Amino acid sequence: MSASQSIASATSPTATARAVSFAGLRSAESRSTTEQLFSCSQEEIARVAQILRGLHCGAVMCGPDGTALPFIAAPCGAGDPSLARRTCLEVPIYGSEDAPLAILEVTPNDADYSSTLDTMLRPIMQATARAIAERWFRIGHRCQWILVAQRESRPDNAIILAIDDRRRVVGADRHARQLVAARGSHFAPDCALSEFFEVGALSLRGYVGCDIATRLVDAADATVWSALITPPNPYVARPVYAEQHLLFHARPRMDAITCVSCSSQGDAETRGLPPRMLQRIRDYIDNHLDHRLNVDELATQLGISPSHFARSFGRSVGTTPHDYVMRRRLLRAQELLAQSDLSLVEIALRAGFADQSHFSRRFHQFMGLPPKAFRDRCR
Q: How far apart are CA 137 and CA 304, in angstroms?
């Protein structure tokens, strides 16, 4: 059965998505790779589905084993296989190797199809495929440090590495392996990070649950890369929380690199917050999520000006204080949804949201599904 026929025959795409939705690591062995990939990518799928629905397009994720999982119903007229083949946009999702893990196929309404629509859709779907691939990589290497880096002179040149506590590279995405191959070598697991970057002053200690924004110098040609380093999933050793936290911890960060303001080596103010101050403010945030937290209050806890705090915090964590607090609120809400019988109103207040409506809106925005659906899925 072709992808287009699979879309056309799906009577309820929502039901299909629910049937293969993320149900925890324990059930992963019974599902195909394509089903697991589809399940863990609900946030990316939900985001692009809104765009495709507005453009009257159908979409499906196809696996090399013939699995076809639709997430947008086929447009009118897409049942004709000859038309579908002519108008279908195909974008591969690559893992670490050259063979794609799956392919995203988009079938526009034939009446509305044009080269302009193709030009608009292609970069959107390519960005979605990259985000799904990055999430898949992060889930597979959730016990390691994940480094995403982008060459500053070439923003389109980006790689992802998995690093252990010894600063050994234990995993590399397809682009990183291609970079090594272009230099006449072959990627070998457990190689030193210094084979990629000059990392003499890089420290991977003292950070738990927050990204590290930094700059790295290429070991081969001395070009500068902007980088974001994510610590290992802190809940891997605690199964009660691991499954609920996994998808949130694995959210793609590649697009955030362009927003990172990295430190210079000579100015103390531009190096971000010292580790002790950073840990202190992180602990304060976690212990006061049910309070109203703003930049002024957080800066007061450290005895520095709000503007200095906001700049330094952003350089240390890779995001603004407001976004970081929001992420911690959402994580707290996930834990309460999964482990308690509290009402949505009580969870909203305990996580620090103004009301249930605000909580539900932000949760759906970040996770791709409503709080109640998340709770049902966890159970």
A: 38
